[in-house]
Amino acid sequence: MVQESEIFECQQCGHCCQGQTTVSLDPADMARMLAVLGIRRETAEEKYWRVTGAVVQMKTPGGHCVFFDRGCTVHSGKPWRCAQWPLHPSILVDEANLSAIRESCPGINRNLSYEEFKIKLAAYLAGQ
Ligand code: SF4
Ligand code: SF4
Predict the structure, then answer these.
(1) 20 to 30 Å CA-CA from 124: which of 31, 39, 61, 114?
(2) Ligand 1 atom nearest to 86, measured from its CA
(3) C-alpha 78 – ligand 1 centre gap (Å)
(4) 31-54, pLDDT tens digit by residue?
(5) How confident is the model over 69-79, as pLDDT tens digits?
(6) Nearest ligand atom owner, CA of 68
(7) Nearest-CA neighbor of 79 among 18, 35, 29?
(8) Pocket perturbation via mutation, ligand 1, pick of 7, 12, 69, 70 by most ligand atoms within 8 A of CB
């Protein structure tokens, strides 16, 4: 069994939580986040969510996700796209995807070759 730490250890740099927009939330993400925060949708829309038509993202005061504070403060309620990062399955099909993700995320293990990384990632994802 491959441990996550063999391929990735978050450095809490916050890079993936910065920017003027965030990932969008699907209905399951919204329900999970509301449950974890213990709030109603109206409150989330007022304090945490940016709703643009059918698209729901997180507000980005100061150029980063509203939930970022030296790490994710809504960890168990984060959207699935956040939870998936940076161990994205697209890495398994193209080395360029690993290179691009490595550029954005300092937590990726840089001591492994692409083939080594791919084998460990496949085993890790299969074990989830
Ligand atoms: S970019 Fe990578 S190392 Fe930095 S906070 Fe995000 S997941 Fe962690
Ligand atoms: S929900 Fe958490 S992991 Fe996702 S962008 Fe916001 S702070 Fe980062």
Answers:
(1) 31
(2) 7
(3) 14
(4) 999 999 999 999 999 999 999 999
(5) 988 999 999 99
(6) 2
(7) 29
(8) 12
Domain boundaries, the chain: 11-73, 86-128
Beta bridge pairs of residue 24:
57
Cα separation of 107 and 101, whole Å?
A: 10
Residue among 70, 68, 77, 2 at smallest CA distance from 35: 77
The SS3 of residue 50 is strand
Residue 1 confidence (pLDDT) = 87
Rounded to a whole number of angstroms, the CA Rg of the chain reads 16
Q: Compute the half-sphere exposure of residue 61: CA atoms within 13 Å on the CB side of its CA.
A: 7
